[in-house]
Structures are given as structure tokens and as C-alpha cells.
Amino acid sequence: MGGHRNALFPNLLTLGNGVCGFYAITILCTVRIESATGALEPGQIAVFSKAAWLILFGMVFDVFDGKVARMSGSSSTLGAQLDSLCDLVTFGLAPAVMMLRLGGVHAAPAVWWERAVWFFSLAYFLGATLRLARFTAENNPDESAHLAFKGLPTPGAAGCVASLVIFYTYIMAFKAKELQWLSGFIEPETIQEAVSFVPKFLPFLGLLLGFTMVSNRLRYEHLGSRVFSKKHSFDFFVYVIFGGIVAAVLPEPILPVLFLGYLAYAPGTLVYQYFFPAKKPAAHDVRSVDV
After folding, report:
1. With 0-12 CB in 10 A as exposed, 13-18 as middle and 19+ as buried, what is 224?
2. Which residue from 90, 217, 250, 104 is spatially nearest to 161, judged by alpha carbons?
């Protein structure tokens, strides 16, 4: 009985993640896109922005539920299954629905484009489903088993989609003070035109994310475990503090850089290792340790 009581708090955190995903999907399905110009209305911008922030907010619950469960010794099969189900809602289904809805923001979209958006969004969802099924089957409650992932983790994939949507709605709304200041140098329409590619880019990104989530060759570090499970230097502490301040002041342009940089990390590492393989020490350079 005691074990079940200890698991209550981490399971509530997990359910908080699922609630964020459910709420995001709900508001995405209720928004009406009837623009004849192919542009979002102010109310639609607010809905997409809110849904994207809900996905990121779900990540906060996801970071801490497993950590709290392992620290309290209350990890369980039920908790692992519940975590995967909630992750599938928030980081699998919600971003796929967002791609579908935002992909329809066009003036009279072509039939082939509607089909492409549907299938690419499906590819993202299936990639997330397979990724979470594999993770659940191979799940190990030991802390050392949560330092790296095979394939892009679903929160990272969802973060790529949500952060780009946040940046897109941030520019299209053009209400932030820093943007008003920038408009004194560049016309707002010019800036908005520069980011108008995002709705068309998201489905292709979804296809790429679906593949990276199930790739066995790509290894991604678990940033939460890396940060909280080991000691770091004072310089690292300073970087985290001041980096967090910059991200808190300007989250809209900073978050896409962070998430897309994380996405590119593993493929970039593979490419670097291919062109610059680590040199193995020569046989005569290896010294015996026998005494």
C-alpha cells in the first residue's frame, strides 16, 4: 500500500502532462480557419499560440514526473505506461493536429497539398507512437538508463513544432515591444513575409521528425538527467543562469533555436564522426598495465 501512496504525486504530474495535450487538441479542433487571404486572423493566432505553449508546459510535467518517481523509489510499470500514454497525447497527437490545422492556412489550397499535409502529419504521429512503444518496452527505472535516448525523444520533436508555431504567431501578431521597436527599421509586412513559410515547412519537418524519433543510429542526450544527475562546474552554473534569463526575456525567438539545435545535434555528430573519425592509438603506443 505504501508504494502506491508514494506513486501518487509522480502519477499526478504525468496526468498534468496529458491534460495539457488534451486541452491543446481541444482548442485546435475548435478554431475555424476560413481566411480567404491565406493569413491567420488575430483570434486564430491566439489559439495556435496557446496550444503551442500548452505543449511546452506539458514538457515541464514530463521532466519532473519520472525524476520524482525515481527519487522517491516509486517507479512502476503503471507509471511507465501512463507516462507513454500521456506523452502520445501531448507530444504525438497534439503536434500532428497542429500541423494539420496550420497547414490549411492557405487561400484555396491545392488537393495535393492537403494530402501531403495529412500524410506528413500522420508520419509524425506514427513515428511518435512507435518511439513511445519501443521506449516503454525497453524502459529501465535505473537512473543511469535515462542519460541518452535512441532516436529523438518525443518531447524534443514536439518542441520543434511548438516553438516554431510560437515564433510564427509571435511575428504575425506583431504586438511585442521589441517588434514595435524593430518596425522603425524594417516594415512589419517584410518581417511577416519572411516567416510566412512556417505553415508550409511544418509538414516536411513532421516527416523528418517522425523518422528521427525511430532511428536507432541517432543518439540524443537526456538533458534533464544530464543537468540534474551530476555535478557541474561554476562556469556551467553561470551559463545556465544567464542563458535562462535570456530565454525568459525573449522566449519566442530563442526556443526554436534551442529545439532545432537539439534536433541537429545527433545528425551533426554522425556527420562529424564520418569525416573526422577518432584515431585509434597505434599498437606500440599502448602501454601495458601489468606489474
Report:
1. middle
2. 90
250 grid coordinates: 525573449
The CA distances from residue 140 to 61, 76, 134, 206, 236, in Å, are 20, 10, 12, 28, 29
How far is residue 128's CA from residue 212's CA, in Å, rounded to a whole number? 10
Please give the Cα distance from 178 to 22 (Å, whole number): 32
Per-residue pLDDT tens digits for 30-50: 887 765 556 678 788 899 999
Backbone angles phi, psi at 221, to 5 degrees: -75, 145
Q: How many residues in the chain?
A: 291
Q: Which amino acid appears at position 45 of this protein?
A: I
Using CA atoms, how far apart are residues 280 and 243, in angstroms rounded to an integer?
A: 37
Grid cell in block for residue 219:
543518439
Task: Give the angle subtended at the CA of 17 by the CAs of 164 and 255, to the nearest 5°.
Answer: 25
Query: What are the phi and psi torsion angles at 177 (to 5°)?
Result: -65, -40
Q: Which cell numbers hold the place of 188?
A: 512589419
Structure pTM? 0.85
